[in-house]
Specification:
CATH architecture of the largest domain: 3-Layer(bba) Sandwich
Shape: globular
Structural class: alpha/beta
Strand order of the largest sheet: 5-4-13-14-15-12-16
Bound molecules: flavin-adenine dinucleotide
Strand content: 15-25%
CATH topology of the largest domain: FAD/NAD(P)-binding domain
Radius of gyration: 23 Å
Number of strands: 20
Distance between the termini: 62 Å
CATH class of the largest domain: Alpha Beta
Helix content: 25-40%
CATH superfamily of the largest domain: FAD/NAD(P)-binding domain
Number of domains: 3
Length: 430
């Protein structure tokens, strides 16, 4: 029976292990930090839930917010409600859940650090802190910054990463009282490839910022995050440091356009999955779903006796989408749309047009792919123009009928949200 060694027991490694072990392969997972809180937002979109329904059924603690706030670099805001909630897990909880499933399926777990591996004849010799192991097939699932990748494939360049920095902010009463434990907030900045986020979890929030490596030095990221956390009310100005919560920092895979053409995902007797392969969305940084799915596709290829087909399975399933994302990221964060930064326009349109909010909702849940986005934006923009015109006309009528003072419009020009979650239909406008 084929012996499969999986280095890394995160979402990619654990999912590959579960699928391969369930089908009868002899699987060993090497994980050096079982139960760690891997720096992450922990957000899972609907496409993950649709493919892996156990994530939603799980009795393990997780948050399921529907309310979203987007803020532009100018302080304008759009608030809307998702048709389907995001699932947000602490990564210690999620990783433990996925590893338990792998063990229940028959995989073996060795809690140790893999130091090295090399080919010996037709097998792999794996050196770990716990000793030597042999395997027929080696899966590297050791995350974005593992130096082990260099043994089988070219190392990533700095520009293939986003830097992240953040805090796990304890959910104190004043945050709950203001409903911050039920809202996902995203802050864009003008001409900056990255964003700040606040993701609520059951007992704390992941509040962080990411930026393309080389875009901003770390002190600049800290400053932007501090402004975001204070202005959005996650931190109180004079609160003690403990209220800001423990710090995290890590890298996020965000491959550039050229990288996708020559990405090496597999070779003789080995494969890369998840972040170790760079399989994350270059626009949003979403990686958990792609890690799990790549693990699953690799297991399918192994079980079919055709591991060489794995790169093709990735390309057909979601690789094309991520490659398009690499192109889009540049335009999204640096490009202009109708004379404004694209991210600023996005927030302005979302604040004024239900059709545009539906488009965003579909993008977030994964039912709108990057291919076909251009056509959808064009069609949506036409509808948005009609909606904004009708709204303007209604306001003008009301102003004329009730002789309202023009000061009532000043909020709109500063971007006061017109799209609000109202507990009714998704993304409805009140
Ligand atoms: C700050 C931040 C926020 C993010 N937010 C989100 C989000 O909200 N939603 C989302 O979908 N994605 C998010 N991501 C991306 C997501 O975290 C990754 O895409 C995902 O964790 C990739 O899973 P993986 O299994 O490939 O790697 P990892 O989760 O990194 O797992 C790799 C595992 O390998 C182990 N390992 C490494 N080296 C060795 C070794 N030598 N020996 C033994 N074990 C080893 C590690 O301990 C680790 O457990 C975020 C990333 C960052 C940095």
């Amino acid at each position: 029976m084929m012996r499969v060694a999986i280095v890394g027991g995160g979402p990619a490694g654990a999912t590959a292990a579960e699928k391969a072990a369930r089908a009868g392969l002899r699987v060993t997972v090497f994980e050096e930090r079982c139960g760690w809180e891997k720096p992450c937002g922990g957000g899972l979109t609907y496409k993950a839930l649709a493919r892996y329904p156990f994530l939603g059924d799980s009795a393990q603690p997780h948050a399921a917010p529907r309310r979203v706030e987007f803020a532009s670099g100018r302080g304008e805001e759009a608030r809307f409600r998702l048709a389907r909630p995001l699932l947000i897990y602490s990564r210690a909880v999620l990783n433990a859940l996925l590893l338990r499933r792998a063990l229940a399926a028959g995989a073996e777990l060795v809690e140790t650090r893999v130091l090295d591996f090399r080919r010996e004849g037709s097998a792999w010799r794996i050196e770990s802190k716990a000793g030597r192991y042999d395997a027929d097939f080696l899966v590297l699932a050791a995350g974005a910054r593992s130096r082990l990748r260099g043994i089988v494939a070219p190392s990533f360049a700095a520009r293939d990463f986003m830097l992240t920095f953040g805090h796990y902010v304890p959910l104190h009463e004043s945050l709950r009282a203001r409903g911050r434990d039920r809202v996902v907030r995203v802050q864009f900045f003008e001409d900056f490839e990255g964003y700040a986020w606040a993701f609520p979890r059951p007992d704390h929030l992941s509040v962080g910022i990411c930026a393309k490596a080389g875009e901003s030095p770390m002190p600049e990221l800290r400053r932007r995050l501090e402004n975001f956390a204070l202005r959005s009310g996650y931190w109180r100005p004079a609160a003690p440091a403990s209220e800001r919560g423990p710090v995290f920092s890590h890298v996020l895979a965000a491959l550039g356009v050229g990288r996708w053409k020559d990405a090496r995902l597999a070779g003789r007797g080995w494969a890369l999955v998840g972040d170790a392969a760079g399989l994350a969305d270059p626009v949003t940084g979403e990686g958990i779903y792609f890690a799990m799915r790549s693990g699953e596709l690799l297991a399918e290829a192994l079980l079919a006796g055709a591991p060489h087909r794995y790169p093709e399975l990735i390309r057909l399933d979601f690789g094309g989408q991520l490659a398009l994302g690499a192109r889009l990221a540049e335009r999204f964060y640096h490009g202009q749309f109708l004379g404004e930064f694209a991210t600023t326009r996005l927030v302005q349109l979302a604040a004024r047009s239900p059709s545009f909010v539906r488009l965003l909702d579909n993008l977030i849940e994964g039912s709108q792919s990057y291919g076909g986005l251009r056509a959808r934006v064009g069609a949506t923009f036409a509808r948005a123009a009609v909606e904004i015109g009708a709204r303007w006309a209604r306001r003008a009528c009301r102003t004329w009928l009730f002789r309202r003072a023009p000061s009532s419009r000043s909020g709109e020009s500063r971007g006061t949200p017109l799209a609000r979650e109202d507990g009714g239909q998704p993304a409805s406008i009140t």
